[in-house]
Write a structure and sequence with these properties.
Length: 444
Amino acid sequence: MRIATAAYLSLFCALLPFAANAQQTADKWITAWAASVQGPYPVGNSILQPDLRRVFPTPEAGAKDQSFRLIAGPDVWGREARIRLSNAFGTKPVTFDGVYIGLQLGSSAVAAGTNQPVTFGGLASVMVEPGQSVWSDAVALPFVTDAGPLGLQGRKLAVSFHVAGESGPMTWHAKGLNTSYLSAPGAGAHGAEEDEAPFPFSTTSWYFLDALDMKMAPGTQLIAAFGDSLTDGTGSTLNGDDRWPDVLSRRLHAKFGGKFAVVNAGIGGNLITGPAEYSPQMPYPGGPAALQRLDRDVLSLSGVSSVIWFEGINDFSKNGNISVEDAKKALADGVAAIRKRVPGVRVIGATITTAFGNIGPAHGFAEQDTKRQALNEFIRGSGLFNGVIDFDKATANRETGELQAEFVPDSTMGGPGDKLHPNRLGYLAMGLAIDLNLFGTPPS
């Protein structure tokens, strides 16, 4: 009996590596953070941006022998991560080296002992051609403990890298509403350093980095929030993480733990249908049209199971001013493209919130509101979507047609607000209006 037991234990121990490998194979990559790139710096709609003239003296030259420490908050946490660096809107190859990922301590400092080197095909540097992006190798995160996918909920990663030489026009996401950090031009590679001294400059945008994956359990599902400034978070608070996708994320985590991840694929000023052409030489502040960027910014992300599409107010502004029929067709074409690329995906439509009463030159006029309401009826009743979120109902004053008064004051910069972008309270109302059953029941 003892011999049999010893033999069994020996066989069990021999099989342990195979069991571990099987578990690792069963896990999958899930995008835990994203920032849709929108064009070459400084074209875009950044908010509360510091003066960057000493950091990037000429946009045409871009970054020059300097380091970036970008702060990104993963929605779920795994023990392995990988990052995607993009040169989508560059005009020359960009070489990245000195790439590291660690746990943010505060400001531009990294928690001691957490900074891990990142490689690309086993190499410490990578050159990304214009129009291209590249995923890194998997990097172990030993500071992610057994507490599970929410064990570091609310904490953020510091992703550091050095641009060797001169980058040329920089691919970026303008409206980060999150503080990141930069070195001076010519400062060299400092990503390996944990202290904050090498990164004296701040920015409220993200550059080159457009996605971060975590290795997660096979049942984890990704929800991508796709839209314009109302998803990007204009009117919310700097570093507050209180956009409506953030509210949705916290509600899902409270109910389902780490079985869902939510990422933000909004771009301020984005349109569904325009501009007709987009290039580094012909940029537009709102980035490429939604139908043009859908593949890169949503469908190429890892593990997408649901897409919330909340967009259209800019198409009915004086910058777009398309017909309701054209907007319906564009939405239908986009939904068809999503379903073709990701079989079984849930596509959730969100009704467009009001801009009535906006005092700016592009929004707030009666024709825009008439078109908006007509498209909302289509979103609610066409059957195009797997489900509908009625953001309009959650935020509008039915008597005036404007945003509810308590949602108007601007939480980002203060002031009276623009009657287009809700404040922190308005985004909270939007996030609370979402039926969590729209995304299905996650595996137990």
